[in-house]
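Hi all, posting the design record for the shared folder.

TITLE: backbone redesign
STEP: 1 of 1
STRUCTURE INPUT:
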């Protein structure tokens, strides 16, 4: 047990090390009056003086905007952006990701992994996939775009959940390996799509003066959905069985695809201050 808990220190230290060398954002540097450092960062990001100057002017204008309060709820554009942000935040959770994160060993135990150590090892393998595949979003979200990553990821999640549901429905000697591969595919697809992209989008889509309020409401909705899903997963498995439960999550992945196609804007390569979502 001490070793298991101690291993959690390794990624924590890695995160601290990464944060120590992470540069400050140009917006923050302009806000605190470090204009020279801010310009240097902009030139490093854009590698083009004209583009850096254009972004500087946009940031300067944005910093003059006063943060709005609850009166934002009267604005149609904010309400529409809030609908998109809350919808994404809730769908990120109700597609089932934290059932795997929280109950991974239990799922593998249901799939026939005979010992606790084997189930924990399988869960660790899924966690490694989660970390590695997050890098895909880092490298491709601005090139390929937010929506294509969501399409590919949600589609892959649905396929993986259908495979997992079928494996439990027609369980046999091969259930364990199928469950492992299905969950690795599911988590891998989530890691480059719904996982990071939702948080990027809900930081971009709100009107500038209402962004703090919008992100707060969406984050509250996300954690509320997380609580509901995690509380009722075992109840669903007991009442409906694992096959039906994972089938429900697969259907919700399809619902997410439709929601993204219908409502979510593409924001790649757009200046943050100029992104606008209209009702």
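Okay, here is what came back for every position:
SEQUENCE:
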């Amino acid at each position: 047990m001490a070793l298991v808990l101690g291993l959690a220190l390794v990624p924590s230290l890695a995160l601290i090390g990464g944060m120590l060398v992470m540069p400050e954002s140009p917006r923050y540097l302009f806000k605190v009056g470090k204009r020279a450092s801010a310009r240097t960062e902009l030139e490093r990001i854009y590698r083009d003086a004209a583009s850096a100057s254009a972004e500087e002017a946009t940031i300067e204008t944005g910093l003059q905007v006063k943060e709005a309060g609850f009166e934002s709820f009267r604005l149609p554009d904010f309400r529409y952006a809030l609908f998109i942000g809350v919808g994404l935040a809730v769908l990120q959770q109700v597609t089932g990701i934290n059932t795997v994160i929280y109950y991974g060993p239990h799922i593998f135990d249901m799939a026939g992994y005979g010992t606790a150590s084997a189930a924990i090892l399988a869960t660790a393998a899924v966690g490694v996939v989660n970390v590695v595949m997050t890098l895909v979003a880092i490298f491709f979200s601005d090139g390929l775009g937010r929506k294509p990553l969501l399409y590919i990821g949600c589609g892959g999640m649905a396929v993986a959940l259908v495979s997992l549901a079928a494996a439990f429905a027609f369980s046999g000697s091969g259930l364990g390996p199928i469950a492992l591969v299905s969950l690795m595919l599911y988590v891998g697809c989530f890691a480059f799509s719904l996982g990071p992209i939702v948080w990027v989008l809900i930081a971009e889509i709100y009107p500038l003066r209402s962004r703090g309020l919008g992100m707060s409401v969406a984050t509250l909705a996300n954690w509320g959905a997380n609580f509901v899903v995690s509380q009722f997963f075992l109840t669903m498995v007991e009442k409906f069985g694992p096959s039906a439960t994972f089938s429900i999550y697969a259907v919700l992945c399809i619902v997410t695809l439709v929601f993204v196609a219908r409502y979510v804007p593409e924001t790649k390569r757009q200046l943050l201050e100029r992104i606008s979502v209209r009702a």
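COMMENT: The mean pLDDT is 86.
Let me know if anyone wants the other runs.
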